[in-house]
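2024-03-11 09:14:02 DEBUG pipeline.ingest accepted 1 chain
2024-03-11 09:14:02 DEBUG pipeline.ingest length=231
2024-03-11 09:14:03 DEBUG pipeline.predict start
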Amino acid sequence: MTQEITQSYTPKIQPNDILSIIVGSLNSEANEVFNTANSFTTASTNYSNTGSGARVQPLGYLVASDGTIEMPLIGKVNVSGLKITVAADTIRAKLQNYLKEPSVIVRNLNFKVSILGEVKLPAVYVIPDEKITLPEVLSLAGDLTIYGNRSNVMIIREENGKREYARVNLTSRDVFNSPYYYIHKNDVIYIEPVKSKMLDTDSRIRVVPLVVTIVGGISTLGILILNLVRL
């Protein structure tokens, strides 16, 4: 059986994105003007680092609130709302006045997703290829625990000044047609526990005061018996 892919997602550049822009040309010395070697350390998790250790990544170009980046020689370039490939073509066209046969590679450095709740490795994950599905994200987190509710996964999404709350059933084939099958930048995925765990946890919480009361009563009774023996 085959199924047509009806949902697809290609991210677009937004203000506050951090872009890695690698410029190449026949003049290697001129390339260095654009490819600054500065770097900084971040504790975010990515594909190759499932712990919380630090890693080093390029500093990149910050997209300003007006949707522009500031590059040497060519000045401000408006990239907001553009796909990564279109932004690369736009920068390449401007560089032709300064470099011979320039090439440009653009990557988004802060495409991150938060995964919380009943997964083995809850964390903030940085996605290097900027396109990932819900099952792939959950596999990064080590899959759901035995207490994870696969039929009611919550996804919180903030875009265009609005916050959306959606529920996805991983056990249904309809998940492939869901607008939340492809994860967007800054999505928050929460895996809630199944009811059996919540009931088990609740019963334990209720039993603790009872046990404390019984132990306290036994201790008091023991003290009274000890005092009677002494008498």
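2024-03-11 09:14:41 DEBUG pipeline.report The first helix runs from residue 28 to 34.
2024-03-11 09:14:41 DEBUG pipeline.predict end
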